[in-house]
């Protein structure tokens, strides 16, 4: 006898088919159970903290309107309808609109402003972007560091880079960021010790490894400081950092060859050249690396080797697959020919740029104009200047200063002054270095009054004079016996926070005043300086207090306006709630339909609405 019970179809169907049910009630219960299991209560997402780190949004994730705005800005930055001021203005206005520009849009406009040397507009847009909470990218930080370097603010650039290198930084520094700051410290300011310290910080940070470009900049700096042994030592350090193997980036070998030439080791330099540029060499050379080697050969009497290497570069040049030649390649060849005194060949190689579809830029023109001016070939330099104006290559401040110096070299003083004055008509802004050159040139021609005029013009335009300009004028006034003017210049140095009154200048002025029997003027000068400094500090404190009072008054006014708005909104809300409750109480007390309709009409009219029977919208 079997102990198993017969299985009915009613019991078999749910066992074989879990979604099949015997009756409608069980099916409904199962559906309710599935819904209950499917629903998962998720807690609400908290609002992001204002101090939370925000990262840049990738371009593919942007809304269509923001992507269209990005493309519109790119069209304004390049092409036939390029309009940089309009692009910067649109981006700045859009920062506080519903269609905010992305980080990459801001970076594109900032890069264009930096290329155009519009640094004031650059810093203004960068500040607005940060205030609008547009997250910066690594490229944005590099552009900001480059702008600080262009403004000759190495300490600010160094401080900003160290902030990026802190542990936990959302956007760690890139190798390019270190390259920009190291180049600023070495090439522009000669601060080799700070640059070496920054290199050590780069290696200790863990963000960037031993970068050959950074080492190349440092080696070039020590070569410029006539310390070839230190440059060779840096190369050995880089070689040890990469495991003792030869460095495969060719960027370092140009500076290494210059160091060898500087130390009188020409054989080692040429051996290095043949080794790294031989057929079996594994060292990778790009246009920048080739340029350094060509420059090392051309500046050390190896013009034939430089020409051969340049021809090799032209043969390897196959854009876009292989870029072996750029504008700087032609500049270093111009330098090589001019170093050998072959200025016609330098001009000829300059005009070969068009054969390789390269358009000379302002730096290329300025480089050749500098060489021609130093060798008193002012006619050829002026021909190049005319070509710049005809080709649409805008001459910058350096161009006019170079032409001014070239005219001074051949005693064409009035023409030199006219080139400097042309910058006002072209809306160019000469810096302190440019003003120092015209002041120094006029002083050398014994035109002290004109030099003083340009010095006063520089201060009137808000350009802080360099200490070199102060000292040049002070020495000239003392030599001319104009001690009153010399005392005014010394007073300007003492009142200028960026200038230092050296002991040499102090002794020169005081000795001249004592020799003229004006010892009392020395004491009076220092007393006047102390008094004016105290007055300036008091005025600054007063202006600060006034600004703080105005800011407090503005904050109180805004708070009062906000409180008034909140109070009005609360009163309106209370009135609406009271009207609804009154209507509800009257309805509960048994008001007739007609009365209810009249009450509804009165309530709706209070809210500015109409019922369906009154031609409602």
UniProtKB/TrEMBL annotation:
The keyword Nucleotide-binding does not apply. Residues 546-567, 585-617 are annotated as: Disordered. InterPro entries: PPR_domain-containing (IPR052308), PPR_rpt (IPR002885), TPR-like_helical_dom_sf (IPR011990). SUPFAM superfamilies: TPR-like. Gene3D superfamilies: Tetratricopeptide repeat domain. Keywords: Repeat, Transit peptide. PPR repeats lie at residues 174-209, 286-320, 326-360, 361-395, 431-465. NCBIfam families: PPR. This is Pentatricopeptide repeat-containing protein. The lineage of its organism: Eukaryota, Viridiplantae, Streptophyta, Embryophyta, Tracheophyta.
